[in-house]
Amino acid sequence: MEKHIMQYQTVHFNLNGKDVERTVDVRASLTDMLRGDFRMTSVKKGCEVGECGACNVLIDGEAFNSCIYLAVWAEGKHIRTLEGLLGPNGELSDIQQAFVEEAAIQCGFCTPGFILTAVEILESGKEYSDAELRKLLSGHLCRCTGYENILRAVKKTMYRRLGKSF
Amino acid sequence: MYDMKALYQAKSVADAVALRLAHPQAQIIAGGSDVLVQMREGKRAGAELISIYGLDELRGVSMEADGTLRIGSLTSFSHITRDPLIQQYVNVLGEAVDQVGGPQIRNIGTIGGNTCNGVTSADSASTLFAYDAVVELTGPDGVRRLPIQEFYIKAGKVDIREGELQTAILISRESYENTFGHYIKYAMRNAMDIATLGTSVNVRLSADKRTVERARVAFGVAGPVPLRAETAERLAAGKTLSPDLADDFAAAVREDINPRDSWRAARDFRMHIAVESARRAFVEAVHLAGGEL
């Protein structure tokens, strides 16, 4: 097979509120860059074919599987990972706290991906039915919890943010 | 890291055409939810890619002066579903693409990629067939437009010529005006699955809501490429609404479809669910249009 052409490109983007730049190999996925160059280890390498959701990040407010997203496409984008949800002293955000309270975590591998999709859901400011929430969360696989506790954690936070009782 | 030989990033449509001519062997990548997965599987290992993902001019839905709906080829599935023009005029298309993969796939996947793949199971394709969509391609000699039925040549093969890329999908006012449609995806799972069969029906009723002026039905996975069931369409045209009409319309789809046996489902099973899906989608479309059966 022919050898690939070495190609690098400098990418400028905003990561968790901070403007950053990196020169990356054009063959890199966004997962590769976030983990390797920025140590965002909440971005997990699961299936790496866009099926499991473990590598999910928010790009301009929408959820994307970073394993099937070229690193160079990050140019000019606002990217958020789980690390960006923490308070200044490492405090958990409401949705993370709800995952703890509802025991929505066992091994934890799927958790960062689920929580970022939950952030997109919560930031829409809408109230969803259980069926709608299940569909919105359906891009993530969890082999431990059976999903019920995850659904409950998202629902609880949704109602809290809407100022309604759960 | 993806096993790619080189990446060329287009800065404009004209630049993309120039890159296509300069690198005829290179693969176009839009959202990448098929191309990058195939690279991971080794199928496109060592490929050269032309990325058009950065071309924002190919995103969004608009209406042209003559009422034609124009869907930019890079518009993502989730943006199509949320688009007010789509919701108002061809809601069934938004409904159909809301059943592709899962939420993250619908944020990255594009309608252009869905159709350029040439696969019969594409959730957008049956509805686009049912609305006589027109595919717009831009190449070295300018813009070429052709009916989507002609765009699909055979399984996995579409009519994209040297130097061309798909830039939009168009639906004429004559085609969508006063129609109501429904899409049924039959799959093993509710998310992250490929359609065993996709059925898209739309109807236009008379002003008194008693007669079918026009009915259309198209299928994915009922043949090597998406297809229309025109015998059923002719049967329903001009008929008075009745419960029997739904059954007759549904039974007639058997005349035009030709599904295969695959590991996902047997031919006989696909024939069976095609009839039942056509009936249910017809009934729902009639209800949406304000008719009673």
SSE order and pairing:
The complex is a heterodimer of chains A (166) and B (293).
Chain A: E1 8-15, E2 18-25, H1 30-36, E3 56-59, E4 62-65, E5 78-80, H2 94-101, H3 111-123, H4 130-136, H5 148-161
Helix pairs in contact in A: 2-5, 3-5
Chain B: E1 4-9, H1 13-22, E2 27-29, H2 35-40, E3 47-51, E4 61-63, E5 69-72, H3 77-82, H4 84-89, H5 91-97, H6 103-108, H7 111-116, H8 125-130, E6 134-139, E7 142-147, H9 148-151, E8 152-154, E9 157-158, E10 165-171, H10 173-176, E11 180-186, E12 197-205, E13 212-220, E14 227-228, H11 230-236, H12 243-252, H13 267-288
Parallel strand pairs in B: 1-3, 2-3
Antiparallel strand pairs in B: 4-5, 5-10, 6-7, 6-10, 8-9, 11-12, 12-13, 13-14
Which terms summarize this structure?
heterodimer, A: 166 residues, alpha+beta, Ubiquitin-like (UB roll), 2 domains, 5-stranded mixed β-sheet, B: 293 residues, Uridine Diphospho-n-acetylenolpyruvylglucosamine Reductase, domain 2, Enolase-like, domain 1, 3 domains, 13 helices, 34% helix, globular
Q: How would you explain this protein's 3D organization?
A:
Chain A has two domains: 8-81, Ubiquitin-like (UB roll) (Roll), CATH 3.10.20.30; 94-161, Orthogonal Bundle (DNA polymerase, domain 1). The mean pLDDT of chain A is 96. Chain A has five helices and five strands; from the N terminus they run ββαβββαααα. In chain A, 30% of the residues lie in helices and 16% in strands. With 166 residues, chain A is α+β, with helices and mostly antiparallel strands. Chain A has a five-stranded mixed sheet with strand order 2-1-5-3-4, covered by helices on one side. In chain A, helix 2 (94-101) crosses helix 5 (148-161) and helix 3 (111-123) runs parallel beside helix 5. Chain B has 293 residues and is α+β, with helices and mostly antiparallel strands. Chain B has three domains: 4-51, Uridine Diphospho-n-acetylenolpyruvylglucosamine Reductase, domain 2 (2-Layer Sandwich); 61-171, Uridine Diphospho-n-acetylenolpyruvylglucosamine Reductase, domain 3 (2-Layer Sandwich), CATH 3.30.465.10; 185-288, CO dehydrogenase flavoprotein, C-terminal domain (Enolase-like, domain 1, 2-Layer Sandwich). Chain B contains 13 helices and 14 strands. In chain B, strands 4-5-10-6-7 form a five-stranded antiparallel sheet. Chain B has a four-stranded antiparallel sheet with strand order 11-12-13-14. A three-stranded parallel sheet of chain B has the order 1-3-2. In chain B, a hairpin with a 2-residue loop joins strand 8 (152-154) and strand 9. The termini of chain B are far apart. At the A-B interface, strand 4 of A face strand 1, helix 2 and helix 6 of B.
